[in-house]
Structures are given as structure tokens and as C-alpha cells.
Design a protein that fits this description.
It is a single chain. The protein has helices at about 5-35, 50-55, 70-80, 85-95, 100-110, and strands at about 45, 50, 115, 120-125. By secondary structure, it is mainly alpha-helical. It folds into two domains: about 5-55; about 70-125, Winged helix-like DNA-binding domain superfamily/Winged helix DNA-binding domain (Arc Repressor Mutant, subunit A), CATH 1.10.10. Strands 1-2 form a two-stranded antiparallel sheet. Helix 4 packs across helix 5 (about 100-110).
């Protein structure tokens, strides 16, 4: 075999192994975060600060969250505009997974904003 072929093939294998090792590290971190193992929150640290603070977010502001019940407000608006709408239809309109709404909708019921009739959701009052 030509030396160039062997060298390039070995380099390709080494590159792929490096990618796989990085993927394994990510999966292990995700697993540890899910089962509560490891370093508490499961977030990487930089110089003793959590990654969220290092990225400029303050304490108490989870990554990716806007606050203010944005999803609940979106769902409520859909129910008001389309009485009888189902959770899968709401999820599709919001481009989110339906399982999230199974947590949001009961909160809207508890707040007296919506009611459920059969599979559909309606504005309360």
C-alpha cells in the first residue's frame, strides 16, 4: 500500500475517533444531569463560575427561558381564537412538543383561564 494512503486513512480514523470521544463525553454529561450524578446541575464550569453566569446570565435565570409564562400565554391565545382546539393542534401551531402542554394547560385551568370539554380546550367564562 502506498504510504500516502495509509497516512490519510489513519488520519481519518483518528479524526473520527476524536469526534466520537467528544460525543461520548456529551452523552455522559447529559446522562449524569438526568440521573442527578456528577457536579450538581450538570453544567460545565469556567474558572469556578457556572457556565450560565459565565455566559452573562444572572442567577435564577435558566438558560433559554424568557419568563412571563410566554408559552402559557401563547396557548391561551390559541384557545381564545379557536375554542375546542386540542393539545396536539396547539402544539403544532406553537411548533413545540405536545408533552409540554400537558404541564401548561392544567395551570391555565387552575388560574381559571381555560376549561376542558372532551378533548378540546375552551376559554373559561
Amino acid at each position: 500500500m502506498p504510504a500516502g494512503f495509509v497516512d490519510s486513512t489513519v488520519k481519518e480514523i483518528d479524526d473520527r475517533l476524536s469526534e466520537l470521544q467528544q460525543e461520548v463525553a456529551k452523552l455522559e454529561a447529559a446522562r449524569a444531569a438526568l440521573i442527578g450524578g456528577g457536579r450538581g446541575s450538570g453544567r460545565a464550569t469556567r474558572g469556578g463560575r457556572s457556565a450560565s453566569r459565565a455566559a452573562g446570565r444572572g442567577p435564577g435565570r435558566p438558560r433559554g427561558r424568557r419568563g412571563g409564562n410566554t408559552r402559557a400565554n401563547q396557548a391561551l391565545e390559541l384557545v381564545r381564537n379557536r375554542p375546542g382546539i386540542t393539545i396536539p393542534q396547539i402544539a403544532e401551531a406553537m411548533s413545540i412538543e405536545p408533552n409540554y402542554l400537558y404541564r401548561v394547560m392544567p395551570k391555565l385551568v387552575a388560574d381559571g383561564q381555560v376549561k376542558r370539554e372532551g378533548q378540546g380546550w375552551h376559554p373559561a367564562g
